[in-house]
Design brief:
10% strand, alpha/beta, Threonyl-tRNA Synthetase, Chain A, domain 2, flat, binds adenosine-5'-triphosphate
């Protein structure tokens, strides 16, 4: 069975639920509106303080009493609060407090992400202090501009670092604020200046155009006639002013035509038509589902591990060698060498541009007109020789651009840390189904792909070039993005060492066969059972999808969440399953066809039902990566390989042999090859992540795959009672109750694969419970009811 979580066990656990400190919806409404009102009151009191503050001064200094009269619009409370915040506190900047309190109210009311609110508070207080110090500069003691705090802090700073020092410190504060809060960089400042310059330019040119308009309007009335008259002097006297006049005349003719067309259209639109919206008719199940959703909310698959926390970013390491440094000398040198080499072969270059990536720099050149591209491509080795560098790759031409690319490895390559790619906005905000942050491209952009779209991934590369790191990067990405309820891994690791760390998250993320002890499969014979079991899971899932009238897993799960599928019919939330096979070559060598057939079946059919394969191999030879496998793995990653032939086997072209290793890779998902520097995640980092997840509450056991009974352990047809399948009696009960002798019924009810269900039917036939095979019709059931069945089975013994 796919998932066997006894319900009886769950019930008592609910009783001992810890008290929940979360606010209920009503409490949120009360607290949220309180804060919003408090924010508004503060704001009103503060505004009023500017007009009434002086008058209220005497009241503030005396003890509060009902008799004292204040001018503040919020009376004593307002006078006291504004005195405390503005005069005694931070001056005008205190308005930010009222804003922050108001915002907090909105956040609580609408239940928005609290982490963001904390950020708002942190930066809000920062800017309050900063502004009050700044305004303290211009204020006197007890002034409301910077408040007492602003004034005192300012004089304190001035005593130690003087006026200039304080101003510079304030400037530094502002830069820090802009840089961290709004992600400002030096480039953004430059861009602001540039765009301002552009705007001014545009304004000028618009002004110029405006100047010509009157002439244009005059012309438009008899444009045709005037055009001919203007054209004559133009030919005689080609002054720029006259030229402009001619162009304008043309334009006005064009606008004239458009206007006529518009008028015609208007005529048609006089007759207005009322469009009546017809409400969509809802079927009965929809209504029921809507009611269920109304009563219980959408089904939440993560509920069982509701407190599960995703691993935090600080479990991943920062590296010193991160971040790109531009080595101007190196760039210049390489550029000169490229130009020189090409010149030696009489190839002129009209322009050259460099893009610096983490490990390689891409020089994009535009050759002079008339140069044949194949000529440059043939010079690959010569350019490599002149640059005396390994791993030069020439892309001629770069698809989608009219340029030729020459990739040259950097002298000092930088590490792309897993932390940087996981933290990237692209990954964090991605709405992909199974997002994977693979690394960074040559233009230093984070490269994120969707495993669900691939839909399977083939990874190859010689030993020590970064395959295992690549696999870990894939798994880590999914751990950072997917809840244990949403994805399960089946890990096959013949090397026995690479994936063992993931043992710790067995009960969270791994799937295994019911009778196996370890979730990570290291024994090749067990792989065959697992693969066949996955095929059964696939068949079962297809059956479920068929019954639910869904085309793919995402649709099915959405329907299940909307409570449109009845769990009593066998429906359940289906997690994605990712099968990872390290060292596929080894597997094919020892098990051959037995492995290849189920892998090929899965690769061909499993995409729609959410089973995705990732296969890694050291030896990308044709007898390992066969035609069938290749055809079904359009997405491929090639790390460095030793020969052109290997490169061709993986990528259908050369390139992988020219990589520089250490995570330098080529990715393809069809036609384009993308060079990516794989993100680096070290074993201790993976260990930390698995420890972090492993220490949290888990499911009672790993996700169970369907049981697979190998051919050899199946029962023979001349049935010996003791040889019968374990589920024989259950199957008999199902068949007799339904009075329908069909294997697919057994498959559905007992969640079996086709083969086992077929064998059970044969055994039932041998036991005289169902009749013989009758072609497309279901077999006849020979036992009328369950009592008769009991008697029948007793008589056998
Ligand atoms: N993305 C990367 N960035 C930097 N260094 C890397 C990267 N990937 C791999 N390396 C370096 O290469 C070494 C070998 O990597 P890895 O263990 O992944 O190779 P492999 O292809 O799995 O080898 P094998 O097949 O023998 O297991 C790592 O220990 C690391 O030093």
């Amino acid at each position: 069975m796919a998932k066997s979580k006894p319900k009886a066990k769950k019930a008592p656990r609910k009783k001992f639920k810890k008290p929940n400190l979360k606010l209920s919806s009503q409490q949120k409404l009360v607290l949220g509106s309180f804060l919003i009102i408090l924010g508004i009151i503060l704001c009103i009191a503060f505004i009023s303080f500017f007009f009434t503050g002086k008058a209220d001064q005497s009241v503030i200094n005396s003890l509060p009493s009902r008799k004292s009269e204040t001018q503040n619009w919020i009376s004593q409370f307002g006078a006291w609060l504004s005195h405390f915040f503005i005069q005694r506190g931070f001056g005008i900047a205190s308005f930010i407090y009222s804003g922050l309190i108001f915002l907090s109210g909105v956040y609580v009311l609408m239940d928005i992400n609290k982490a963001k609110l904390r950020k708002h508070w942190f930066w809000g207080i920062f800017i309050i202090i900063w502004a009050s110090i700044l305004l303290g500069f211009f204020s006197k003691k007890n002034d409301i501009l910077g408040g007492t705090v602003g004034y005192e802090l300012n004089t304190y700073l001035q005593d130690y670092i003087g006026k200039i020092g304080t101003s510079l410190l304030l400037l530094f504060g502002l830069i820090t604020y802009l840089a961290i809060r709004f992600k400002f960089t030096f480039e953004s400042f430059k861009n602001i200046f540039k765009s301002a310059k552009k705007d001014i330019k545009n304004e000028f040119s618009e002004l110029k155009n405006d100047l010509v308009v009157p002439i244009d309007n005059n012309l438009s009335e008899e444009a045709e006639a005037i055009k001919s008259t203007i054209e004559v002097p133009l030919e005689n006297n080609k002054t720029p002013v006259k030229k402009e006049v001619k162009v304008k005349a043309d334009v006005s003719i064009a606008t004239l035509e458009v206007k006529v067309a518009q008028e015609e259209e208007e005529d048609l639109s006089i007759l207005e038509m009322e469009v009546k919206e017809v409400p969509e008719e809802q079927s009965e199940t929809d209504n029921l589902a809507n009611k269920l959703v109304e009563d219980f909310g959408q089904f939440d698959p993560t509920l069982e591990l509701a407190k599960f926390q995703f691993p935090t970013l600080d479990l991943l390491k920062k590296y010193d060698t991160e971040g790109i440094t531009i080595n101007q000398e190196e760039l210049e040198e390489n550029k000169n060498k490229i130009v020189e080499t090409l010149n030696n072969y009489k190839i002129g270059i009209s322009s050259i541009k460099a893009t610096i990536g983490p490990t390689v720099t891409l020089y994009e050149i535009v050759p002079e007109a008339g140069v044949r591209i194949s000529k440059i491509k043939n010079l690959e080795d010569d350019i490599a020789l002149s640059l005396s560098a390994l791993g030069i790759r020439i892309i001629a031409p770069i698809p989608g651009k009219g340029t030729i690319g020459i990739e040259v490895p950097n002298n000092n390559s930088t590490i792309v840390s897993m932390r940087s790619v996981i933290a990237s906005k692209k990954f964090q905000t991605s709405d992909m189904l199974l997002p994977i942050a693979l690394g960074k491209t040559i233009s230093n952009e984070t490269f994120v792909v969707d495993l669900a779209k691939m839909p399977h991934l083939l990874m190859a590369g010689a030993t020590g070039q970064g395959k295992s790191v690549g696999l870990n990067a894939v798994l880590t990405s999914l751990l950072y993005k997917k809840h244990p309820a949403e994805v399960k891994f089946v890990l096959v690791d013949p090397k026995k060492v690479e994936l063992t760390l993931f043992n710790k998250i067995e009960r969270h993320y791994l799937a295994k066969l019911p009778d196996s002890e370890d979730a990570i499969i290291t024994d090749n014979t067990k792989v065959i059972n697992t693969l066949n079991s996955l095929c059964i899971e696939m068949d079962n899932r297809y059956e479920l999808l068929k019954n639910a009238l869904c085309r793919n897993l995402a649709e099915y799960n959405a329907k299940f969440k909307a409570r449109k599928l009845n769990p009593n019919d066998g429906h359940q939330f289906l997690p994605y399953i990712v099968l990872v096979v390290d060292e596929f070559a080894d597997l094919i060598m020892t098990a051959g066809k037995e492995v290849e057939t189920p892998i090929a079946r899965l690769a061909q059919l499993a995409r729609a039902i959410g089973i995705h394969l990732i296969i890694a191999t050291q030896r990308p030879s044709v007898n390992v990566i066969t035609g069938i496998i290749k055809a079904n793995f359009p997405a491929r990653i090639a790390f460095r390989v030793t020969s052109k032939i290997d490169s061709r086997t993986i990528l259908d072209g050369s390139g992988a042999d020219q990589l520089i290793g250490r995570g330098d890779m080529l990715y393809t998902q069809g036609n384009d090859l993308i060079r990516v520097q794989c993100a680096f995640v070290d074993t201790p980092e993976v260990e930390k992540i698995t420890d972090f997840i492993g220490s949290q509450k888990a499911y009672p056991e790993a996700y169970l795959l369907p049981e697979y009974v190998g051919e050899e352990s199946g029962t023979s047809l001349d049935i010996d009672i003791s040889d019968r399948d374990k589920l024989f009696k259950d199957a008999a009960i199902v068949i007799v109750t339904a009075q329908q002798g069909s294997a697919s019924l057994l498959q559905r009810k007992l969640k079996l694969g086709y083969n086992r269900a077929g064998r059970l039917i044969d055994q039932l036939e041998a036991a005289g419970i169902v009749g013989p095979f009758e072609g497309s019709k279901a077999r006849q059931v020979l036992v009328p009811d369950l009592i008769a069945l009991d008697q029948h089975l007793e008589n056998e013994i």
